[in-house]
Amino acid sequence: xxxxxxxxxxxxxxxxxxxxxxxxxxxxxxxxxxxxxxxxxxxxxxxxxxxxxxxxxxxxxxxxxxx
Length: 67
Fold this sequence. Notes:
This protein is mainly alpha-helical. The chain has two helices and two strands. The protein has one domain.
């Protein structure tokens, strides 16, 4: 099993246990290549923190693979 990288892939903040962001973190099930295509700032991160998850998708720059 792969070790999880416990940072937010949008903002890079620590979402590990005792970080204050552990409880409401959301796992990102995309692979790193998909996160790179989606132009995430920290594609190696396996989670999204609660603050980044609460932002609307319009607040993020996301590449559409079908363009």
